[in-house]
Write a structure and sequence with these properties.
Shape: globular
Keywords: ATP-binding, Cytoplasm, Disulfide bond, Nucleotide-binding, RNA-binding, Transferase, tRNA processing, tRNA-binding
Structural class: alpha+beta
CATH superfamily of the largest domain: HUPs
Oligomer: single chain
GO biological process, one term: tRNA wobble position uridine thiolation
Protein name: tRNA-specific 2-thiouridylase MnmA
Order of helices and strands: EHEHEHHEEEHHEHHEEEEEEEEEEE
Pfam family, one: tRNA_Me_trans_C
Function: Catalyzes the 2-thiolation of uridine at the wobble position (U34) of tRNA, leading to the formation of s(2)U34.
Distance between the termini: 43 Å
Number of domains: 3
């Protein structure tokens, strides 16, 4: 990291971005904050969580004695992220808007705004590391494997990664809170935000139902036995156990039910009482065109991958195709490889990039139920 850069930090009101700003100040950089408002809707009771976040960001900036800018990216968010989010759910897939939010808002709209304000670089409170060489930059795993967020950052390109700084990449979360407390930051004990980037912790089904109308249908076993009704396939995801509404089923064991597939053509949700049912397990999958951060791997190269945040890295072989897609073959079958979600690739601790899962091959390839979710 160059000395005395002018760095604008995305101050969210959370402890991570606050400590990111603190660490940059400690290493001699000229630091400013920028608060991003990405969503306009209030909660049902009329309370706007963004106002609480902004108030805390102001307190943090005052404590650190740095300027704080504010930008409203809500329209960008609706056009670049939310519209795609709804489109994917309508198509029966399960998208990850946090990945698109990072690519289109936090490292594009925010980056452009920061550069317009004269910044040399931007910083966030993500748990990741960036390495900057003479001709390219790399995204690397954070020291704290449990907090690593490279999964959500894999879609960044060189122009976005080059000016990016991740001051928390070498710290465990516990140390971040200790630093916040030691330096009197007002949010040192503030609860971490969870949930989808713009939804937060509100009930997901109720939120989605405001924008999409579900079509009820049958919940069936793989052999076609109807066991309940669903509220719309969009409200369910592969591997889901909670919220299925399946009561006691005659002749079935008293055991949990899991979503193992979606039959889009028949509007049926397929369930089974086996968390590792063959319909849930995928020895291989194919992707949409893969985004490679620096260069793509050799045909059949052994890499590591994860299909969801915090999943332990899985060994796989990757076969890039001429159209940019890839076929991925796993050493061990993977559970709930969900179309619409992303698979992210790694080599020796470096995040190489990733792509959206297009189709999955299951251990029940001969089952007459459609394999796509």
């Amino acid at each position: 990291m160059a000395t005395s850069e002018r760095i604008i930090v995305g101050l969210s009101g959370g402890v991570d971005s606050a400590v990111a700003a603190l660490r940059l100040l400690q290493t001699g950089h000229r630091v400013e904050g920028l608060f991003m408002k990405n969503w306009e809707d209030d909660d049902a009771d009329g309370h706007c969580a963004a106002e609480d976040d902004y108030a805390m960001a102001r307190e943090v900036a005052a404590t650190l004695e740095i300027p704080l800018h504010k930008a409203n990216f809500a329209e960008d968010y609706r056009q670049r992220v939310f519209a795609h989010f709804l489109h994917e759910y309508r198509a029966g897939r399960t998208p990850n808007p946090d990945i698109l939010c990072n690519r289109e808002i936090k490292f594009r709209a925010f980056l452009e705004q920061a550069q317009a304000l004269g910044a040399d670089a931007i910083a966030t409170g993500h748990y990741a590391r960036a390495w900057h060489g003479p001709d390219h930059s790399e995204l690397r795993l954070a020291e704290d494997a449990n907090k690593d967020q490279t999964y959500f950052l894999h879609a960044l390109d060189q122009a976005q990664l080059r000016p990016a700084r991740f001051p928390l990449g070498d710290l465990p979360k516990e140390r971040v809170r200790e630093l916040a407390y030691e330096h009197g930051l007002p949010n040192h004990a503030r609860k971490d935000s969870t949930g989808i980037c713009f939804i937060g912790e509100r009930p997901f089904r109720e939120f989605l139902a405001r924008y999409l109308e579900g079509s009820e249908g049958d919940i069936c076993t793989p052999d076609g036995r109807v066991v309940a009704r669903h509220h719309g396939l969009m409200f369910y995801t592969l591997g889901q156990r909670q919220g299925l509404g399946i009561g006691g089923v005659e002749g079935a064991a008293d055991a949990p039910w899991y979503v193992v597939d979606k039959d889009l053509a028949g509007n049926r949700l397929i369930v089974a009482q086996n968390s590792a049912h063959p319909l849930l397990m995928s020895p291989e999958l194919t992707t949409e065109p893969v985004h490679w951060i620096h260069r793509f791997p050799a045909d059949g190269e052994t890499l590591q991958a994860r299909l969801r945040h915090r999943q332990p890295l899985q060994d796989c072989r990757v076969y890039p195709e001429a159209d940019g897609r890839a076929r991925v073959v796993f050493e061990q079958p993977q559970r709930a490889a969900t179309p619409g979600q992303s698979i992210v690739f790694y080599r020796d601790g470096t995040c190489l990039g990733g792509g959206v899962i297009a189709t999955r091959h299951t251990l029940s390839a001969d089952t007459p139920v459609a394999a796509g979710a």
